[in-house]
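Homework help board

Subject: predicted structure for assignment chain

Our instructor gave us this sequence and asked us to write out the predicted structure in token form, then describe one feature. I got the tokens but I'm not sure how to describe them. Can anyone check?
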Amino acid sequence: MTVGVREQPRGAGAPRPRPGARASLVGWLTGLAVLAGVGYRLWLLRQAAPPTNSDEATMGLAALHIARGEGFPIWFYGQQYMGTLEAYLAAPVFAVAGGPSLLGLRLPTLALYALFLLLAWRLTLRLTGDRWFGLLMVVLLALGSDRIVKNQLIAGGGYPEMNVAAAALALLAVDLATDRPGPSADTGRQCWRLARWATWGFLAGLMLWVDPLVLPYVAATGAVLVAFRRRELWGAAGALLGVAAVLGAAPLLLHSLLTGRNPLHAVLVASGANASAGWADRLHGGLVLGPPLGMGFCAPGQCATWQLWWALVLPLLLAVAAGTAWRVLRTADSGPAEVGPGAVSPRVAAAVRLALVLAALATLGAYTVSSAAGLTPVESSRYLSCLLVSLPALLWPVWTVARRGLRPAATGRHGVRSTVARSVAVLLLATTVGTATHATWRAAQTVGATRAAEARHAELVSTLRQLGVRHVRAGYWTCNRLTFATAERVVCAVVDDNLRPGFDRYPGYRREVDSATAPAWVAPAGSPLAGVLDERQRVAPGSLDLVTIEGWRIYLPR
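My token output:
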């Protein structure tokens, strides 16, 4: 596919300023955008936003157990997939702070987001050499809709780490495919290069343990390394990469060897492979709702009709980005267009951009064919989190047209068509930023309600402490959150809406509650569980003492 887009003539990394030179305007603006993105998310954390849940509390409990030395879980409690890297990152925070907290659990995820922002900016510069385009990418990634900040800040397993790893893998692929150390290379440079090979392998293996959703980016960037450095991979670099990959995936491999269980089967079950959804629902959830929700263009929990425009544009962006990258890959010289440190050959830059596009296609396709896209499209749009890593590749052709118009070869002249194309490109970029900004503003408006809900939960914890309650039964979305908020001073066992035993991710809590003399019941006001308990109280007056606080009902057995 040949597309009439004028490529940047140099395909190199951003020119480096003279030593001691003042930072340029674009440098200052980029720094401010980074601070704004991190500051916005820090403000959200201070407001207990985005709202937490029992799944995040489960990761917090794992971190608490690690900090106390009581256990070192490999998997998210209650399942055989999704590694507990976030728990191991939060455990030192809990140890230093003297106990668990929601803020302490999320500080590592905030640090991961800041690292992702810097890596994405650096990757953009390496692929395009355009600092203003790098600024645009930082601005887009600094914004945060409801779904985006949930993926980046909630320590629920996998999502905060994936984008960091994918961006790092792509950046390492650029560096390794560009540099060509010969026999005369000094020892320090050779060691540094081997360290980068090991880092790539370790991250690839680590993500296999943490969350396989990032595997399309592992495969795509790995293909770039094979294409450009095949011979080197047959030597020490390949051996070191393999050893590092095994080390990164060691928790998964050891567990599989000891238990004989296949983690891939658990992932397929979680994705809805054992459920049924019609193809119409899958296509609608995967191709219409999924991209706008998963890439940050929708209001909290929903997409208005006008916000679905991104679903129409995304296939065109994928096609144009793939076509332009392929054309450069086939026609450009192999050497760097600029000589000097940081110079990237046009072919390497094009190959990595193509890899990012193909990884995005694979991610989108895998999600669309899964039943999760049809059964729970709003919540499962989080599976498209990694698409943000491909934004530089998707928008680079649009940026090029917006700045320079179409190539003369595509139109025969610099005329009306080129002007129209530039206008459309500018409109597309402006609409992209505008829609993401609107979604961010809508997400910020929900902070007040989230903070009020957290205050009501804090009052519940305080009330249970005053009542001397140590053991409770409650619904799934109440239990582990309550146990984590009290640092296990209150232990909860899960029940369903008919008071039957539910899904306890940590079985030890059920055993402790079952052995207790008279566990209390806790239910959100107005919930089905509260209705069943109210009915029990009506049928058998005096069997339960009711304590009500705003948003909650506590039932104390006599």
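Reply (TA_rk): Your tokens look well-formed. For the description, you could write something like this. The chain is about 65% helix and 5% strand. That's the kind of observation they're looking for.
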